[in-house]
Design goal:
The protein is an alpha+beta fold. The protein contains 8 helices and 5 strands. A hairpin with a 2-residue loop joins strand 4 and strand 5.
């Protein structure tokens, strides 16, 4: 795998080409100071109960821009970085989902996610032409929240030379019996 191939899979690379056929998304470039905040482990609990935890840094300009984008997208969004969503931290959200209504909720999900470390630190690890340990720029994609979307009905489609060559279930950690029940419907596109 080449670094260029991995980089083409970033949402800010493919979204402009498919924006008319996919979920409405607003993309923000993240400042390096915010990335460092996400990577900083020093804010985790201290063994000394009397020692106060430091307050997280403030990002007023970024917060304002993101909150405005959330309003534009209907007041609820699904967040993801260049490649990955913080799906492993949905448990920390009061809804148990990745539905966010503010910059603070997004920040908590991103900060709590271990899966985002792949995007932040290891995305090029398997590239045979790796030139940099990580991308130069990171982006936060805010996708309009649709409560009617169900993970069991999300699929990845693979296209080569403008021909659909494969489809797979997007959420691979669960078995959804509804897919067996709807097999004929899904195969025929009804």
């Amino acid at each position: 795998m080449k670094e260029e191939e991995v980089n083409r899979c970033q949402i800010q690379e493919w979204y402009p080409k498919f924006k008319y056929t996919t979920i409405k998304t607003i993309i923000h470039e993240l400042p390096e100071s915010f990335i460092q905040y996400l990577l900083d482990d020093s804010e985790q609990e201290s063994d000394d109960e009397s020692e106060q935890l430091p307050l997280p840094p403030l990002f007023p300009e970024l917060e304002s821009q993101i909150n405005e984008s959330i309003k534009t997208l209907g007041c609820a969004i699904f967040p993801k970085l260049n490649w990955t969503s913080p799906k492993d931290s949905a448990w920390i959200n009061s809804t148990g989902t990745l539905k966010c209504t503010s910059f603070i909720k997004i920040s908590i999900l991103l900060k709590s996610s271990d899966s985002l470390l792949h995007d932040l630190c290891h995305v090029h690890d398997l590239c045979n032409d790796c030139n940099a340990p990580r991308p130069d720029h990171f982006f936060l994609a805010l996708q309009k929240w649709y409560p009617s979307l169900h993970p069991e009905m999300e699929f990845r489609c693979f296209v080569r030379n403008h021909i659909l060559v494969g489809i797979s279930q997007r959420e691979v950690t669960w078995f959804y019996s509804i897919l067996i029940e709807k097999k004929h419907e899904l195969e025929t596109g009804i």
